[in-house]
Amino acid sequence: MDGPWDELGDWSRALEHDPRAFAAIFDHHEGRVFRHSVQLADSYHDAEDVTAASFFELWRRREDVRLVADSTLPWLLVTATNISRNSRRGLRRYRSLLDHMPRGEYVGAPDLASRLHDHEELYQAMRTLNSNDATLLMLTAVEGLTMKEAAGLLGISDGAGRVRLHRAKQRLRDQLHDRGEILSEIGGGQ
């Protein structure tokens, strides 16, 4: 197509779920959004992620997007700024969590995690637990954290952690009723 680009026309077609029209918007604005993201992000890779997330949000929220001067670019730039800020906040929280985790000599069962795959039944039974219960079990039984430490990391109270751990161990006992020696290795035996 020769002549000026018709973003408003492409945007109208994108609103009607035309992927080619959306691709034209992406092709036209991607470089500018990426350059903006590079200034905000900690790395080239992060800038790529922010750019991709900005266009994903443009597509996902296309019904709510407000154009400025018949262009999606201002919306994309503001979105990239917000995504970058949120990403940095999340990274700071993650780093803070890591900084507050107990350090020191490993006190858990040193090779239990590697032996989980040797015990296929236990491995499969662990996969049936919800992720928080499995994490709680691994943090206390394998990593050697106290219940208070493990519960704190999961954002639950010590009492709630004890109840969840008891129920998780009971579910494992029910599934592995004839394999008590496996459960005793992770503190789950009778």
Can you walk me through this structure?
The protein is an all-alpha fold and 190 residues long. It has 10 helices and no strands. Helix 1 packs across helix 2 (19-40), helix 2 crosses helix 4 (73-100) and helix 7 (131-142) packs across helix 9 (158-175). The protein is elongated, with a radius of gyration of 25 Å. The chain starts with 6 loop residues before the first helix and ends in a 5-residue tail after the last helix.
Mean pLDDT: 81
Helix and strand element order: HHHHHHHHHH
* Estimated structural class: mainly alpha
Number of helices: 10
- Content of β-strand: under 5%
Give a quick account of the main beta sheet: strands, pairing sense, barrel closure.
Answer: none
Stretches with pLDDT under 50, minimum 5 residues = 106-110
Helical content stands at: over 70%
Q: Using the alpha-carbon principal axes, give the shape.
A: elongated
Radius of gyration: 25 Å
Distance between the termini: 75 Å
As an assembly, this protein is single chain
The count of β-strands is 0
Short description:
Helix 1 (7-15) packs across helix 2. This protein has helices at residues 7-15, 19-40, 44-60, 73-100, 112-115, 120-128, 131-142, 147-154, 158-175, 180-185. Mean pLDDT is 81; it is low at 106-110.
Highlighted features:
about 190 residues; 10 helices
Fold blueprint:
Elements: H1 7-15, H2 19-40, H3 44-60, H4 73-100, H5 112-115, H6 120-128, H7 131-142, H8 147-154, H9 158-175, H10 180-185
Helix pairs in contact: 1-2, 2-3, 2-4, 3-4, 7-8, 7-9, 8-9
